[in-house]
Amino acid sequence: SLRGRVEAPARVRPGSPAALPAPIGGSSGRVLIVRHPDSMRDALADGDDAAELQTRLAREGFSAEVRSCLDPRIDLSAVDLLHVFGAGESGLLPLLEQARSRAIPIVGTAAFANVTAETRWGTGVTNALMRTAADANGLANYLQMVAARQLNTKEAVPSAQEPIPGFDRGVRAVLENLDVLLVSGAAEEQLMRSRFGYTGAIRTVPAYVGSEAAPEPVQSLAGTREFALVHAPIAAFTNLSFLARAARGAGIPLVVA
Q: Would you report the helix, strand and coil content of the chain in percent, each value rounded to 5?
């Protein structure tokens, strides 16, 4: 069974090192944290959150493990609480329905990405125009069309469509199985309420900020003026090549974390 001890949090700035609570201990229970195999393969940011959650639960006395939602070794008879990452992953649905049939409480972290087709479109047209542009002038013209959402390919069209067929329906089905949804802030809550019709309980949990490495001043990289910070994988879908071009054109230092 699940048993937890709670103390009132101190009033500090979310995400700061002082906001990390000291373990209280004395809790018990078996918590299964699940992610979609695609996000596990791509090493996305929700993996950091899931690993940190596992660590903090263990410090409080819970037994916690992280698995793929498709892992055949999952045994829900040995689970007191299920925590899922990625409300947009319809592949989670079979496991959620099994947990619901066993009356297992379910917490979901939205970890929401790619809610429109723009990510897929941007990656598609980027690859196409880089192959097509004959020179810098041609590339500049293409980039203006990209900015105006006027450049398409047969496979890639801007956000007039779902990322994949049935995406919205799958998200709603996942949300219907949750007891509590954790979001990163007001914008994500509004999205889940207005677009996907979620009416259940919501709690705001700021994204995990790692404190393992000592912070270093960024002035040596970006100077003392304003700069752009990118916290994203170096991959095609994050559009770093165009972002770097735009930052250089605007004379804005770009720092990639």
A: 40, 15, 45
